């Protein structure tokens, strides 16, 4: 392989194809602004720090959640479990009139929380930084809850997969 720089289209295509093969947990990021619930699916979420406990979330600036989240400055990162696949599929449907009509949603610290999700993290927005098409949001933890019996919903190569059934790897 040559060390020459790929042209922009080839580079973007190579990046998309490579990222399709990185397994990622599926999250529903939610907020409430002026009485209305907003939410998107995301895979670009990461723990940032344990002190203070915080998360990093990347949100496309064209997403319906983006401006309400920045205005409200409070959000919830809901980790979807295998049992929440129907929620993920409903969130992905652009024709769905209300993303929150599917799933067991409840108010938790003023934001929508998926009651039967694997985990939920409510955060106050403490920093936002624009980069490319996205805003990198840093949230400091306000509250969290976790279900012991849930396996995360994982996205890989444009499909949801069950990582609890992944074959064991030879340790030798």
List its salient traits:
3 helices; single chain; alpha+beta; three-stranded antiparallel β-sheet; 12 strands; 172 residues; Pnp Oxidase, Chain A; seven-stranded antiparallel β-sheet
Secondary structure topology:
Elements: H1 8-20, E1 24-25, E2 27-33, E3 36-42, E4 45-50, E5 53-60, H2 66-72, E6 74-79, H3 85-92, E7 105-108, E8 111-114, E9 119-131, E10 134-146, E11 154-156, E12 159-161
Antiparallel strand pairs: 1-11, 2-3, 2-6, 4-5, 5-10, 6-9, 7-8, 9-10, 11-12
Pfam families: Flavin_Reduct
GO molecular function, one term: FMN binding
Keywords: Oxidoreductase
Per DSSP, the total helix count is 3
Q: Please state the CA-atom Rg, rounded to the nearest Å.
A: 17 Å
Protein structure class = alpha+beta
Characterize the main sheet: 7 strands, antiparallel
CATH topology group:
Pnp Oxidase, Chain A
- Overall CATH class: Mainly Beta
- Average pLDDT level: 88
For this structure, the quaternary state is single chain
Q: What is the percent of helical residues?
A: 10-25%
The ordered H/E elements are HEEEEEHEHEEEEEE
List unreliable stretches of 5+ residues: none
Quote the distance from N terminus to C terminus: 31 Å
Which of globular, elongated, flat, extended, rod-shaped describes the shape? globular
Which CATH architecture would you pick? Roll
Record the strand order, biggest sheet.
3-2-6-9-10-5-4
| CATH superfamily caption | Electron Transport, Fmn-binding Protein, Chain A
Strand content: 35-45%
Number of strands: 12
Count of distinct structural domains: 1
